[in-house]
Amino acid sequence: MVLTSKQSASPLRRGTIYLITALSACTASGALAQDSDSGSDSDYDDNYDETLNPGLGRTPRFIFSPSVRAGVRYRVNSDFALDFMVRHKHAGLEPPMVVRGTNASAAVRASIRIGEFNWRNQIDVKQTFVNFYGPKDYAALVVSTGLSREFALGESGWSFTPIASVSFQQANDRLLNRLKYSLEGAFGYNLTDQFSVSFGPRAEVRVYTSYPLHRVDTIFALGGGFDYEVTKGFNIGSELSYQFSKSSLSRARFSQWLLEPQIKARFTF
Fold first, then answer.
1. What whole-number distance in Å separates Cα of residue 156 and Cα of residue 177?
2. pTM score, whole prediction
3. Which of 60, 78, 84, 168 is the most buried (most CB within 10 A)?
4. Residue 159 confidence (pLDDT)
C-alpha cells in the first residue's frame, strides 16, 4: 500500500537509510536475472504492494526500491533444492530520500526440475513497516508457485524463459488478501561466465478476495537489468522497468518507472 510520512528521521536513522541505499544502488541483482541452477531467479511474489487507490495520495512517477537478500541452499539432489531466505526491502524511496515503507520477510522455497521445466514453490512471511522500520503496517503470509522453462535461441547465445505463476496473500488486514496471476518472459544473454543481461515483459492480475467492492488490479511492465556474480554465492545487479497499472477501484490508473537494485548472497551445501 502507499505509505507516506511527514516525520523527520533522527540523524542516526537517516544515516542508516543513506548507507543501505548507497550499498544497494551499487550492488544488486535484477529480478529477471538468470539462475543457472533453476531457471529465472525472479521472486514470484515481489513484496512491493503499491495500491492504486487515488485517495491515498499522489503516486510517484519514479520509485527507487533497493533490497538485500541472504539465503542458504540445500541441494538434495541434481533435481531438487531447498532455499531458506531473509530479505529487507524499501517499499518505496523517492526524493528527497523519504522512505515510504519497509518490509522484512523470510521465505522457504522448493525448486524442482522436471525434465526441461523448473517448478518453484515458495512460502513467505512478511512484516511491513511505515517509514524505515517505524510503526508496523501489516503482516502477511504469501504462498506462491510457478513454472518456467529456458529455451536456447539457436546459436546466438540468447535464451528465452517464460514464467507462469500464481500466489495467494493472507494478511492481517483482510482488505489486502489477494490472488495474483503473473506471466512474464525473460530474454537473457551471458556476456561472460559472471555477467549477464536480461529484459522482457511482465503482466499481472491481482484479485482482492475480501475487498467490500469488486477490486481487480492489472499491471503491465517492460524491464531490463543485469546480474554480476562477484564471487560464488554473491551477486550484484539491478533492474529498471516501466509499468502501467490500472484498477477497477475508482478506475484508478497510473504509470511509473521503477528501479530495483538488489544484493544477493547465497550459501550452498
1. 43
2. 0.79
3. 60
4. 96
